[in-house]
Structures are given as C-alpha cells and as structure tokens.
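#lab-general

N.A. 3:47 PM
ok so I finally got the sequence cleaned up, no stray characters, all 328 residues accounted for. can someone with queue access submit it? mine expired

B.Y. 3:52 PM
send it over

N.A. 3:53 PM
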Amino acid sequence: MVMNGYEKAAIFLSSVGEETAAQILKGLDQEIIGRITSYMAKMKKSDRTKIESVFVETLEKVNSGDIKQLGGEDYVKKILTRGLGNENAEKILEMVGKESPLESLKWVNPKTLSSFLVTEHPQTIALILCLLEAEQAAAVIEVLPEHIRGDVAMRVATTERIPDSALVEIEEVLKVQLDIGKANQGVTFHGTKAIAEILNHCERNTEQKILEKIEGQNNPMADSIRELMLVFDDLDKVDDRGIQLILKEISTEDLTLALKTASDSLKQKIFKNMSQRAVQILKEEMEARGPVKVSDVEKAQQNIVKIARKLDEEGKIVIAGRGKEEFV
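B.Y. 4:20 PM
back already:
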C-alpha cells in the first residue's frame, strides 16, 4: 500500500470534517492546496486500511515531535475519534504504543540518520538500511559519503539473512531495546531485491555510481540487480492496458516533463493509448515548455516509475522482462 504525501493529506482532510480541513488548508500555499484537493476530488470511498494507516502515521509523527502545529497528541486523539469512531481510535492508539524503537527510525530525517550512521562499520549501516523502507533507505544512502556508498550497497545486495547477533549489534548501535520476535530465528532477507528497490528511489547519478562499484566487484550480481530494477524506459515493456492504468494515475505535468528524454518507441506507445485531442494538447505543452532542467525530467520520470512499481506490486500491470520470471 504505497501512497504519496498528497494522497495521505487528502485522506486525512476528508476524514476530519469540513471545518477542521478548512483550518488546516488555510495554512498551506496554493500549489499544495491544489494538489491535495485534486486527490480529494478523485476520491470516492477511501479504503478503511488506508485511513487507519494515515492516522497511525500522523499520531506517530506527533509522538516523535515531527508535528507540533496541530496542537499535540490530545488534538490528534480527538481527530482520530472524529474520523474513525472511539473504538477504532483506541485500536490505533494501542498500535502506535506497541511500535518498536527500530520502526520509529522511519520518522528520523535521512540527513540526521546518515550523519549518525556514517561513523559505523559499513556492515552495520547496510543491515540498518535493510530494515528501513526502500524510499527512506535511498534518501539515507544518497547523503552517505561517496567513498562508502558502493561498499554499503554491495553489503545490502549480498544480505540473505540477518542473524540475531547482528540484530543485537544494531540494538547496541541504536542504544534502544529492539522487539526482535522469537529468539534464535533471525530475519531472512533478499539483499539483491532490496538494493534494487533502494536504487529505484535514488537519483540516477547515485544509482549509476553504485552499480558501477558493484559491477567492479561482482558483475553477475550487478546484472541481477539491474534485472530487478525498473527504469522509465522499461515502461515500453508494459502492455496497452497497463499504460492506460498508469496514465490514469499520473499528472500531466509529470508526463510532459518525463517524455522530454523518452525514446521514440515509448512516446508512440503512450500517445497510442491517449485520445487524439489529449495527444495534441500534450505535444503543444511539450513544445511550449521549451528547455527544462535534466533534474526536473528525472524527478518526473521517477514519480511515474513509482506509480508503475505500485501497480506492478499490486498485480494490476505486468512489466515484461523484469526479474527471473518468464511469460508465455
């Protein structure tokens, strides 16, 4: 269940009532309001799991001190009760109370976490990255010193199991008690898949340098990682129905920028799955925009790739040639 910040905000504001939502929106700038309300306009009926997830995240951020402007934990408790009812609110509060210290790391600013980890052994850094969400791990690895990135990435890629002894080491590094479940089991892990997902969230320059480093040490492993990664050009391998599903979820702004450096075959595939009028408007927008920053193009492509990955993980689209599976 992957949601971007605007979708989370839309779900939150749709659940707290008009008066509260209006008060919150008043403090935001026009561009952000526009993006949030566009998601709100598209919403029909929010999934209960998504609503609970958003409220859990909000309360966790308040507890960690990341959010103060909403008026503290008591305020959020009232919001929870108003949005979900007393019983569900209590359930979420209980879930948050049971969160392990390691899980609380997901609220730490990546630069802060990176500066904390940089003095640790690359193996310790790698194991902690393995236990983070791919997007946060990517943000951390991008701000690590360049001379250790490749080593850390290589260690993530070769991780198949995190033993209890390593979890104990991480516990000492974090100086907190970890809830590691049953004793003597450790954690099984697919390192190659993990580093592929992390690199999918990194800037292209970072991604290329890390892959080159891994390739220098283990060429077959670098090939395996590339097979598991999804890049913008891979959308050419998506069937027409899949392209149509992706187009429904991306913004015209991102599509206009992303197509600036797209291959002709990918452009044609996308144009084929749009109405003639929509294609005409898109082409006019691309021409009118003129030169754009490469970083803006890459960011737009990354946004679209994230949506494609989400649909792929949900089984709604198939990207031919990814991973080890073959299709007939």
